[in-house]
Each structure stands twice: as C-alpha cells, then as structure tokens.
Amino acid sequence: MILTKTVILKIVNPDNDLVETMQKYSDGMNYASSVVFQNGKTIGSYKLQKIVYGYLREVIGLKSQMSCNIPRQVSGCYKTLKEQIKERKVIWKEITFSPYSMTLSYKRDFSISQDLVAITTINNGRKPYKIQSYDNAQQYFDGTWKFTASKVVRHKDSNHSFHLSIEKEVPEKELEYSSNYMGIDLGMNYLAVASTTEKNCRFFAGGHIKDIRNQYMSMRKRLQSKGTLSARKMIKHLSDKEKRLMRHVNHMISKQIIKFAIENKVFLIGLEDLKGIRENKVRKVRKDKRYHQSSWTYRQLQDFITYKAKEAGIKVHFVDPAHTSQECNRCNHISNTNRNRLKFICKKCGYENNADLNASMNIERRTRDFGYISLSQGCLSATQTNA
Q1: In the chain, count of helices (H) and strands (E)?
Q2: Tell me, what DSSP letter sits at residue 249?
Q3: Backbone angles phi, psi at 295, to 5 degrees
C-alpha cells in the first residue's frame, strides 16, 4: 500500500523573489477562479487550462508548469464546492485565493536536499533557499521516499515553510492475519478509547488537555474584552500556541494507539466516519460547550492514526458512526437514554460499562463484521479500507 506524508520544513532565508512569485501565483489562481465563476458551473482542468494558459503566461508572467498547476487546483476547488452545494452547505460563489500558499511540482518547480530547496521564481529562475535541518526529517532523504507535488506556505508572521509531500510503498499484512480487530472512539473527556476483539482496552486520557484548553479560553475572553491591538496580537499568539499543543498531543496519542495495536497484533483498525460532525452537532451542544466541540481536532488525530497505521502495515476502515454511543454492545438495544455522560446503562438488559468504552466496542464489532465479509469475498484491500 502507498504511504503518504507531509514533512514541514522551515525556510530560513525567504526573500522578495519568493514573496513576489507567491503573489503572482495567487493572482493566477484568482484569474482562473473568476473564469470558472463567470461560467456559472465547474470546468474540467484540461478545458480550463486551454482557456487561461495564455493569460497566465503572457500577462501575469508565470512559468509554464505553474500555469498548468493552477487550472488543476482551481478546477479541484470548484468540484469540492459543487459537492458542498449538493449537500446544501453553501451556494455557488467565487472562490478567492490569498498569496500565502503556492503548489509546486517536483523537479519541474523545485528540487530538494536535506539542507536546501531550490524553487523556481518569477524573476530569477531556480533559486536555492536554506531549510532548517531537523533530526527527525533526515530519514526522509535516505532515498526510500518519493517526493511529490509540495507547497510553500507563508505564515502571518512572515515566516515561510516548505510542506514537502512524500510517499513510499509499505508492505501489507497478509489476509490470514485477521483474528484481531480494534475499534477507536474519539472524544473530549478521553481523547481516544481503544478496544480489541480479544477484549483488551486502553483509555487515552484527555482531561488535563481539556483543563489547559479551558485556561486558554479564559485568557482569550479577558483579552477580547480589552479590544486593544496588543490584546489582539496576544490572542493570535495564544491561538497558535494552542494549535501546536494539540498537534503535539495528537502525535503522541496516535503513536501510543499504534503501539497498542502492534502489541495486540491488530489487523484492521476501525474509526468513525465523522465527516460533517461540526455542522450536525455544534448547534445541538450547550452554548458554553460549543468552543470545545467546534475546535475539536478529531480529523487531525484520525489522519495521524491512519498514516502511522499504514507505516506499521495495519489497515484502517471508517464505519458509520450512527448510534455507536447509544447502542448496547451486549443486546444491541439502541436508546438515547442508555448513555448518561460517562456511564452507559442499557435500559433493556441492564448492561453497564464506561460509555466511551462501550462505543469503542461497537466500532470494533462493526469493523470486524466488515472484515469478515470482505475476507470471505477475498476483496479486503487498502482501497476499500482507507479513507
């Protein structure tokens, strides 16, 4: 199976050439976007390239490969918009792009080593930029990883980073190693609860993280009440600090989860398909709890679990999340009164358990059912299991 990752590397010496190139790139993106918007419907990338290529090259002055990248990106964004329109989340609108991100093709737009990344600029061709060397990033330059289309990202503090996309083939476990499955329930009281077919379980506590985030929330409220420029700057600083904290926590939790899976010889990990949970759930949550719900980084944790599982040769399957927290793992009775905060007591059979553990056991059962059906049909593959 193909393992993909993104390695974030800091660019030490960004200059005006890089900034101007990113500005021109965003100008090209916005021009292509205006063409699609005025058309009133999506345009395929090949057709869009025919329409905008000359303008991007001759008027804006972009290089050839950038002028090919832009139509693909813009067309992809409008396809996503079309799907959101079908789900009645948004209406048809013009998508605008800021000069804070630029996609580059490997070899055509950039080349890279452990210490330098050479990027094609508008005014001075291919220019080398020094990148900060990290010990944990050196492993990705050993020749076993393939570099793919990557991004230059400009942050609001004017720092620049290079988001290097990489991939490689990793071995898959054979189908016979399928006796043990694992379900993972993600939440806010416990960041994750894992349960296996063999009834081994583990809680990954998040209470102390919740306390820290409550402190950040309180500090933000005090600063917002002041409304001064320095207060707004401090709010931005706190927000970035909190994001770094949660990213670090998610890395640590996902690492522990995969270690637990390896120790239990797990073949397939089940996660809930939580797409759209923010839109569906936030308005139902008490007002004083909405911050934690809306800022919950469940998707990032799922992404970390997925790629770390791939590295370990473990498959990941996303199950329907409906009623996982309300269904009794013993008798399958479903009721919204079965769960009361952290307690689960089945109103039909009297089964009692921790509510999050009961949910993880339901996810494991659904994952196991999927695995057994797929194995019996001989069709369990990475394309079916990984979202």
Answers
A1: 10, 16
A2: H
A3: -100, 10
Residue identified by tokens 């409906």 is 322
Q: State which H helix or E strand residue 153 sits in.
A: strand 150-154
For β-strands 160-169 and 2-11, DSSP reports them as antiparallel
264-300 pLDDT tens trace: 989 899 999 887 665 555 445 555 555 555 556 788 8
- CA 175 – CA 322 distance, rounded (Å): 28
Based on the domain organization, do 235 and 335 belong to the same domain? Answer: yes
Same domain, 186 and 165: no
Look up the pTM and report it.
0.74
Mean pLDDT of 217-228: 84
From the list 38, 133, 53, the residue with the least C-alpha distance to 92 is: 38
Domain range spanning residue 321? 181-385
Q: Rounded to an integer, what distance in angstroms lies between the CA atom of residue 326 and that of residue 335?
A: 6
Nearest Cα to Cα of residue 18 among 121, 153, 116: 121
Please tell me whether residues 163 and 185 are part of one structural domain. Answer: no
Taking the C-alpha atoms of 16, 19, 21 and 27 in order, what is their torsion angle to the nearest 10 degrees? -130
Q: Which residues contact 45 (CB under 8 A, 6 or more apart)?
A: 71, 72, 75, 76
Taking the C-alpha atoms of residue 111 and residue 126, their distance in angstroms, rounded to an integer, is: 9
Give the whole-angstrom CA distance, residue 307 versus residue 318: 14
Q: Which of 329, 332, 317, 319 is nearest to 375 (CA)?
A: 317
Strands 343-345 and 339-340: what pairing? antiparallel
Closest CA to 206 of 219, 218, 190, 226: 190
- Residues 8, 121, single domain; the answer is yes
In this structure, the answer to whether residues 147 and 83 fall within a common structural domain is yes
